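fold-stage: in
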Amino acid sequence: MIALSGAERCQPLRQIVPLEREQLFGVMPGELAALDIFGAKLVSVFGDPARPGRTRHRGVVVAYDGTDGEIICMTDAEEVTRIRTACATAAATDALARPDAKVLAVFGTGTQAESHLRALTLVRPFASVLLWGRSSEKAGALAARMSEELGIPITSLDDGREVAAQADVICTVSGAAKPILLGNWVTPGTHVNLVGSSFLGPVEADTALVVASRYIADHRPSALAQAAEFAAARAAGAVDDTHIVGEIGDVFSGRIPGRENDAQITLYKSLGHVVQDLAATAYLHRRAGSETFAQ
């Protein structure tokens, strides 16, 4: 992400092709010059309730050698997206959340909720986790299963306001079309990760939260064009483009500060960028050729 924020050449925006029955086809091209590779992610986004425990993303990541143009690796986009999205959120949380953050809240019950619970607990010693979902039954089942896996108390609650009020870190990883997190629920000093909406249309948080936050994007051009919550706030006249203070790569490199004080609400907007997929693919390619991996 530091390489993305410091790149001299502009990266192309993802292309979203609408299909029948509100399904999507996404094309995400890009270059990761730091590893001398380029490539693309090709992914379908289809809802399928018959696939419990699977994401809605299916496709491939193709990485090319930047020196000779040869294809060096292809990976399963579903698995890469599932893992790298949560890892990117965890890294952003480590940079932006208060050091003393003790309570994590997750809004959502799908596969990204699972992967975010695993990743976020690696960067902060959360004493407890609160879980909210549109289905109380799913939320309760996920809380019980992940509490046993992670060895920390995870409690599902039906009231989103109550969940947000107790949280030091909040992750929204739902497929919600309308806000499930409101700005007046979020207490000063909270860090928020908006992850579930990755294209214009569905919004997980309201305009009040966008306005109240120190807003940091994974990729500024993408957020200006495709971050739904920011677009709604801008259309309402509540913010302008300067409200995006920078990119998470700028925070990692020290070019801009992340959290400025303990009372500030920080917000990381995750749209996902193909450089994350290419970095993960390059890592898997190296592992696949190593003796340790082969064993």
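fold-stage: in (second)
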Amino acid sequence: MPDDAAAPGDRVPQVPLSEALPTWIKVALLSFGGPAGQIGVMHRLLVEERKWVEEKRFLHAMSYCMLLPGPEAQQLATYLGWMLHGTRGGLVAGTLFIIPGLVSLFVLSVLYAEFRDTTLVQGVFFGLKPAVMAVVLEALLRIGRRTLVGRLQALLAAGAFVAIFFLNVPFPLIVLAAGLLGYAGSRMSPSDASRRHAEREPEASSIAAPSLGFVVRTAGIWLALWFVPIAILVAVFGRGSVFVDEAIFFSKAAVVTFGGAYAVLAYIAQQAVEVYQWLAPGEMLDGLGMAETTPGPLIQVVQFVGFMGAYRHPGGMSPLAAGALGSLVTAWVTFVPCFLFVLLGAPFSERLRGRRNLSAALSAITAAVVGVILNLAVWFSLHTVFAELTPLSFGPLRVLMPNWGTVDWAAAALAVGAAAAMLRFRVGMVPTLAASAVCGLVYTLLMG
């Protein structure tokens, strides 16, 4: 892989990749709870505990990754890995981040397709989901304290939350509006903006501008990795095969998933059920439940869709073999673009660090992202504690109203216990998750 635009060395500790590897494995294994929890895990391990990445650099990387289509947390892991160890580090961090979910979703897909009985696994994940709510809450409090340093940032975060949760404003528009507000503020009052952002934004980077050769080589390699396998599938199975259909469909989905998986899942579910008939009605929710309770990005639910689609339309292959190939093809075309966007764009992002107007725009985007993460946390919490949510509309306002008759008291109790353990008694994240998983398994077996 081209590495002439390797990660900048200014104020980044020179940690050997062999030393960083166990930490990236830990990040991958603890990547529950959607973007909020996953970003919180990386912040805790890399910024607070290891002190490998400065707070300012972490927030800058997070703001850039939030601008990209695709899973924000996986791209942030790739960016931070690149920052520490260049292209090799980005590949290691980004790949490890998706492996636990890849394996988990494949195993659960096989169990679902063959037996439809995942009681033991569901018991463990039943305990994990409420505990993840505590992880998300703790991450929000920690990141919010460091990001929302003034009234303007707090207002931007609140406005972003209201816009996406109550008004259903598309995520890209929120990011664009926040960036424009920050940029306009720096232009109208440059001296105040400079003083306000000076302490929060990284110093100007000394990294050289990426060369044209780097751009051509990086784009060429990753575009080839993306599209050559699709061409091979066409040559081997024919244009009308399920594998080619999945490769093309999920390639398109990979470039429109701004704002995370929730923004595109409704479209994917509709196409998978009504157009391609890969899933039966209701099965998308089963897959979503698997993805929400396994490590890795929520967008990995597409792997379940790819498995079931190929399992039901195997052509001349056995259903399990076809499902495995469909699962792999779907995951490949979903995540290869993520590496392209980060490894090509990160050097430019770092090059622009410290430029006052851009810093003001990114600072505003970072504040708005806190509101977006709060939206994801509330969404995740509501769907964990309540079995039914009713969407209500009042003019332009949209509210998810929980049905109090469907509250899951066991999940609520586990969530409260996990929150008390982490926030009040300072119990570590791993012991809290482990204890909750055991409680969930015992509860499921007793109630089953």
